[in-house]
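Fold it.
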Amino acid sequence: MSNSKKRSRLPKTRWQLQTAKARFSEVFRRARSEGPQLITRQEKEAVVILPAEEFERLSGRSNQPQSLVRFFAESPLAKVKINLKRKRDFGRAVKL
């Protein structure tokens, strides 16, 4: 990916932390309508607020199964045969 494409994906709106706190409703609304909002603290990039759908897309959460059973059923290893045979264990002698 070229630098110009990377830059175009960065949040265009920057908020200082104190301003973002005071105008949180606007930051929230802009994140939903305009895209990610960058929050700075002491002039350093600290946090990005983005719509939940974009977070799910970026984190892969939308691709995750809804249950553990479904996760294992959809696993590429679901049809692998596992040998569960073991030698019989008769225990050991214990002095009391």
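The radius of gyration is 26 Å.
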